[in-house]
Write a structure and sequence with these properties.
Blueprint (H helix, E strand, L loop, with lengths): L15 E7 L3 E7 L5 E8 L2 H15 L6 E5 L5 H9 L2 E4 L2 H11 L7 H15 L11 H34 L1 H6 L6 H9 L3 H7 L1 H10 L5 H12 L8 H38 L3 H6 L2 H4 L5 H7 L7 H4 L3 H8 L7 H11 L5
Parallel strand pairs: 1-4, 4-5
Antiparallel strand pairs: 1-2, 2-3
Length: 351
């Protein structure tokens, strides 16, 4: 039975309304009928046997066609959601804030349990589900692209954490490095720590090696060149004690090695995302959206419908669409367009 059938009222499209409270190792399920009576209540393990038991329980209540089972869950992605979609159930994601309000409806005193959550979600779906949006299975290309973008964001967060750790270590024994370089997310700054791990090594190297390093790493811009040389020359005048320098310089070099590996993997992720993005059937639509609008778009199907008959927008008037897409795919995470595009792809919903 299809949720898209406009002639059939929402409550009549389903025979069972289930709330699904998920966890890492087990899930609680409570299902109600059209009158709100609890007709099914169980806890399943997150195993093949557990999911088979859930399918069997649903089938005993409604038959083998599980499309008449509506399930409310407090997430819109993850293994549990994918398995519910594979079973053929109608899946309706619930916003955490809305979930809290529905939970308070059942328990005004604030009591909380997995069973209570599942019951409140299922009964809320029965009464208010007509205004909720149903998830649809994604095509493999979109699903892979969404997951890659989400994982890339997590890797960028890991890189940020490592950079903070590196800067803290340098602050304790090597203030001159922080004064000479502002951006520690780029390989040239890491190369400085690898080449001159301590202030003493830096001062001993001398001006010729400093200049060679700056030119090799394309850091010889006039506005900072003389300032950096001056900082290098007095690096050992304000630094940590020898014991601190010995310990923290080892940590700094170790963190830089981790950053190198992580940056390589981020580059691989970026290439994979660019490749999938170019292969996506709607890449022209996504690439032509003005950057400010990307973070507000929730699903690709909405974009297709909205732009099906639209004239070329402001982004297309600015230049070649290919150049615009390349701009959107820049690797610098702090650039607004890249951040908005990544956020958009990570938040793709299925309507």
């Amino acid at each position: 039975m299809s949720h898209d059938t406009k002639d059939v009222p929402f409550p009549q499209q389903f025979k069972l309304f289930a709330g699904f409270d998920w966890a890492s190792d087990h899930h609680d399920v409570v299902a109600v009928d059209h009158d709100g009576h609890i007709v099914l209540e169980l806890t399943i393990e997150d195993t093949a046997e557990g999911w088979a038991a859930l399918r069997e329980k649903f089938a005993k209540r409604v038959g083998q066609d599980l499309s008449v089972v509506a399930v409310s869950v407090e997430t819109c992605n993850g293994p549990a959601v994918e398995r519910l979609l594979e079973m053929g159930c109608g899946v309706y994601p619930l916003n955490p804030k809305a979930a809290q309000r529905y939970r308070e409806r059942k328990s005004p005193m604030g009591a909380k349990s997995d069973r209570l959550d599942a019951w409140s979600f299922g009964d809320a779906l029965r009464t208010d589900g007509h205004g909720w949006r149903r998830l649809q299975p994604e095509d493999p290309l979109t699903q892979e692209l969404r997951i890659l973008c989400r994982d890339e964001v997590q890797l960028i967060q890991q890189r940020t954490a490592l950079v903070c750790q590196l800067k803290q270590a340098l602050h304790e024994y090597y203030p001159a490095a922080l004064e000479a370089f502002d951006n520690w997310t780029v390989p040239s700054s890491w190369a400085f720590v690898e080449k001159f791990p301590t202030p003493q090594v830096l001062v001993k190297a001398g001006k010729r090696r400093w200049e060679k390093f700056l030119h090799t790493n394309r850091l010889a811009r006039p506005e900072r060149y003389a300032q950096r040389l001056e900082v290098f020359a007095r690096a050992d005048q304000f630094c940590g004690k020898q014991a601190v320098t010995n310990a923290k310089s080892r940590l700094a070099v170790a963190v830089v090695a981790q950053l190198r590996v992580l940056q390589t993997q981020l580059q691989h992720y970026r290439k994979a995302i660019e490749s999938l993005f170019e292969r996506h059937p709607d890449n022209d639509i996504f690439g032509s959206l003005p950057g400010a609008a990307l973070e507000d778009v929730a699903d690709p199907d909405h974009v297709r419908r909205s732009f099906a008959h639209a004239q070329p927008g402001p982004a297309r008037l600015l230049g070649d669409p290919t150049r615009i897409r390349r701009c959107l795919l820049k690797t610098q995470s702090k650039r607004p367009l890249k951040a908005q595009r990544t956020s958009f792809l990570c938040q793709m919903k299925r309507c």
